[in-house]
Specification:
By secondary structure, this protein is mainly alpha-helical. The protein contains six helices and two strands. It has a two-stranded antiparallel sheet. Helix 4 crosses helix 5 and helix 4 runs parallel beside helix 6.
Length: 170
């Protein structure tokens, strides 16, 4: 089972049937077969392929995360826990590994999400974005993000003279 993402996370976004279709050429493997406990040998093979894709996506993310946070350890997720900030990026990468980049009709949406996820992970590795410390214990937490930004340039007060009436409009 993945640290950041579980198979159920992929199924929640794409559906168990689509997950079965993308991971197995066996006609006996459908969404229900992937959820059966214990799974059939064909369903177990499909689940193993999905798990490999998730592990590869996690390894990609870890390469960036651990370069910025060498001691980072993703906390264990309970059944109802949301996907973490890093987990959301891993989910996008895993979805593309399982389902492909998307189609021309959808503008290769999965590929675009992977590009955005990798850009965020690169920013994390460079120190441009940070994992948050929401509980104040001095250690980064696994959820939420913090972004360094310059001070605000435009404020309500600085834009008061830039109104419709100030430009001669009634």
């Amino acid at each position: 089972m993945g640290r950041y993402v579980r198979i159920a996370d992929l199924a929640a976004l794409e559906g168990w049937g689509e997950l079965a279709e993308a991971s197995s050429a066996d006609a006996d493997v459908d969404g229900a077969a992937l959820q059966t406990d214990p799974p059939t040998p064909a369903a177990a093979a499909a689940l193993a392929r999905i798990e490999q894709d998730i592990e590869a996506a996690e390894a990609t993310a870890d390469g960036f995360v651990l370069s910025a946070y060498p001691d980072h350890a993703e906390p264990a997720r309970g059944a109802g826990d949301p996907v973490s900030t890093v987990g959301a990026r891993v989910l996008d990468i895993a979805l593309e590994r399982v389902f492909g980049p998307g189609t021309e009709a959808d503008g290769f949406a999965r590929r675009k999400r992977v590009d955005e996820a990798l850009a965020w992970l690169r920013s994390l590795a460079k120190g441009e974005v940070h994992l948050p410390d929401a509980d104040g214990d001095g250690e980064t937490d696994a959820s939420g993000i913090a972004i360094d930004a310059p001070d605000r340039i435009f404020t309500r007060k600085s834009l008061q003279s830039f109104t419709r009436s100030a430009r001669g409009y009634a």
